[in-house]
């Protein structure tokens, strides 16, 4: 994929000029890939948001998704695909119309899923130092939308919560 290859090339260049630098080529490439994923996701969200005339709402969808994901974990696509899907999804979320009842329902469903499955770290490399607090923080983040009642945030939280479900393959093909 494009971003994976780009991160490998950048890592090789860095290692070429600083072979004794910290981290292996793989670790460096992984870290660069994570940054490229973040920046590409934001850029694509803005571009797709412009296309659908909802840049600020798209950025709200992206931010709420990312904040919850930081604490709840969840399934992760390959970097390039993740950036594309995230950017497109974040810009489509504001186009979904929910009433107050729908917003509360999606928020409540997200809350139940997070209570049952957060944190769910599909990537063995990623382990948060405050892992024991992650479920509580995730639940509080979602519960905050019961106060704000944002349809955009409710849909974003629901999408992220679905990525917590243990229906996605883990590394090595084992589901828990």
From TrEMBL:
GO terms for cellular component: membrane. It comes from the Bacteria. Pfam families: AgrB. One of its GO terms (molecular function) is peptidase activity. The chain crosses the membrane at residues 42-68, 74-96, 103-119, 139-165. It comes from Paenibacillus rhizophilus. Coiled coil: none annotated. This is Accessory regulator AgrB. Keywords: Cell membrane, Hydrolase, Membrane, Protease, Quorum sensing, Transmembrane, Transmembrane helix.
